[in-house]
Amino acid sequence: MMKKLIFLVSLIGFSFCFSETTGTRTLPATYTPGGIITVRINVSVDPGVTGVIVKEYLPSDWIVSETMSVPAPAKLEFEGGNRIYSWLKFDSGGVSSFSITYKIYVPSSASGDYSFYGSVLTLGNPDGSEISGDNILRGNIGDINNDGVVDISDVILCLRMAIGLSEPDIAKADLNNDGIVDISDVILILRISIGLL
Questions:
Q1: Which of 29, 131, 170, 172 has the fewest Cβ atoms within 10 Å of its own Cβ atom?
Q2: Largest interatomic CA distance in the chain
Q3: CB neighbour list of residue 158: distance below 8 Å, 6 or more residues apart
Q4: In what order do the strands lie in the sheet with 82-90?
Q5: Which of 148, 138, 81, 150 lies closest to 113, judged by CA?
Q6: CATH no. for 21-137
Q7: What is the pLDDT of residues 134-162, one digit of tens each?
Q8: With contact defined as beta carbons under 8 Å apart, do 186 and 144 qualify?
Q9: No. of H helices and E strands in the chain?
Q10: Is pLDDT at 14 greater than 70 in this prediction?
Q11: 8 A C-beta contact, residue 27 and residue 38
Q12: What is the Cα–Cα distance from 142 to 186, expressed in whole angstroms?
C-alpha cells in the first residue's frame, strides 16, 4: 500500500514539474487585403502561476486595431521587421486560464501567405513556450480567377471544380486544406465573398 502511495505522489509531482502554461492560436482561413481579421489566443494557465505575458509577432505594417477581450495590449515593440504586441495578466492569488481576442487591420498591399508566431512566458518559464495552433494566414486563396477580389465569380468557378466540370486548382480553391475541392470549399468561398469570413 505504501509503495502505491509513493508511486502516486511521485507521478503527481512529475506531472506538475513538466506541465507548462501554453497558448493556442486560431486564425481565419484567409484574409482580404485592406480588410480586418480576428485572431484568438486561448491561454491555458498552470495552477499557482501568478503572472503571464503573451507576446505576438506581426509583420511591421499589420496593426492591431482592437482588442475585444481583457487584458488589453500593454506594450508595443519593434524588432527587425515585426511589431511585437504584449499582453500581461497578473494576480497574486494565481492567474486563471484566459483568452485574448483581437482584430488586425490587413494592409491593402498584403499578398501571399503570412506566418504568425508568438510565445507565452511565465516566471517559471522566462524563455516562454511557443504558441501552437494556426500559424499560417493564407492570402490570395479563394481568388480563383486572379482578379484581386473574392466574389461570386470565384464561387461559381469553385463549384465547377467541386462537381467535376473544371480541373481543381488546389492552391486557390482548397480552402479547408483537405487536399480536394468539394462543396465545403464552395461554402467557404461563398462566406468570404459575402464578408462572413
A1: 170
A2: 73
A3: 142, 144, 173, 181, 185, 186, 189
A4: 73-79, 82-90, 51-59, 117-122, 125-130
A5: 138
A6: 2.60.40.690
A7: 998 877 778 888 777 889 999 999 999 99
A8: no
A9: 4, 12
A10: no
A11: no
A12: 9
* Structure-block grid coordinates of residue 142: 479563394
Provide the grid cell at 183.
Answer: 462543396
- H helices of 19-65, where? none
> Residue 73 forms beta bridges with which residues?
87
Residues 50 and 91: beta-carbon distance below 8 Å: yes
pTM: 0.67
Apex CA 62: angle with CA 57 and CA 67, to 5°?
75
CA gap 62, 116 in Å, rounded: 11
Q: In the chain, where are the structural domains located?
A: 21-137, 152-193
Instruction: Determine the Cα angle at 82 with ends 78 and 87, to 5°.
Output: 70
The SS3 call for residue 28 is: coil
Task: Tell me how far apart the alpha carbons of residues 94 and 139 are, in angstroms, rounded to a whole number.
Answer: 40
Q: What is the DSSP letter of 186?
A: H
Beta bridge partners of 121: 53
Cα–Cα dist 90/71, whole Å: 10
DSSP-derived letter for residue 88 is E
The amino acid at 154:
D
Residues 69-117 pLDDT 10s: 766 667 888 888 788 999 999 999 999 999 999 999 988 888 778 889 9
Helix (H, G, I), strand (E, B) or coil at 75: strand
